[in-house]
Design a protein that fits this description.
- This protein has helices at 58-63, 69-82, 108-122; strands spanning 4-7, 12-16, 21-28, 32-38, 43-49, 91-96, 129-132, 138-143, 149-153.
- It has 160 residues and is of the alpha+beta class.
- The chain has a single domain, classed as 60s Ribosomal Protein L30, Chain: A (2-Layer Sandwich).
- The strands form 2 sheets. It has a 5-stranded mixed beta sheet with strand order 2-5-4-6-7. A 4-stranded mixed beta sheet has the order 1-3-8-9, with no helix packed on it.
- A hairpin with a 5-residue loop joins β8 and β9 (149-153).
- The termini are far apart.
């Protein structure tokens, strides 16, 4: 099969139910890549969230909810539901949340992961696979036809 790759930019999300599509996001440093997939409906989505909490900048959250974990994740799930996905069947995989440097901004990756875990816990959604932390950049590619998630890291050593 010939695939059409849809690139998910920083502070962006895409969903699909088209088997010939692959969703890809690149250079996940402190940002989080959140992939969801319903294997029965064959619906998937990918979010590239930059920041943990929309309270940091409510105006930006209104204009671009994908920029934040707290607003992007609910939107990702809603968009997948719109295409026929069912919450209890969703496979959730996460990558990114790296830490670079030693100043306060270095904690963004850790905060992104913590906020995501709490948000999913509150909504009774488990993480199926996680490759977060460390000090490496990652890229993710989700194939809609199979649900296969390819994860590429710039070097080994992430906390799993």
């Amino acid at each position: 099969m010939t695939y059409r790759e849809l690139v998910v930019a920083i502070a962006d999300l895409k969903v699909s139910s088209h088997p010939e599509e692959r969703l890809a996001t690149f250079a996940l440093g402190s940002c989080l890549g959140i992939s969801v997939y319903d294997p029965i409906a064959r619906v998937g989505g990918l979010l590239h969230a930059m920041l943990p909490d929309d309270r940091i900048n409510p105006e930006r959250a209104r204009s671009n909810p994908a920029a934040f974990v707290t607003t992007g994740v609910p939107l990702l799930f809603r968009e997948c539901y719109r295409l026929g996905a069912v919450k209890r069947r969703m496979v959730v995989r996460v990558a990114g949340g790296a830490t670079f440097g030693t100043h306060d901004s270095a904690a963004v990756g850790r905060r992104n992961v913590a906020v995501l875990r709490e948000l999913l816990r509150q909504n009774q959604v488990g993480i199926t696979e996680s490759n977060v932390g460390g000090s490496i950049s990652r890229s993710m590619v989700l194939s809609i036809d199979t649900g296969l998630l390819e994860l590429v890291t710039d070097r080994e050593g992430a906390d799993r």
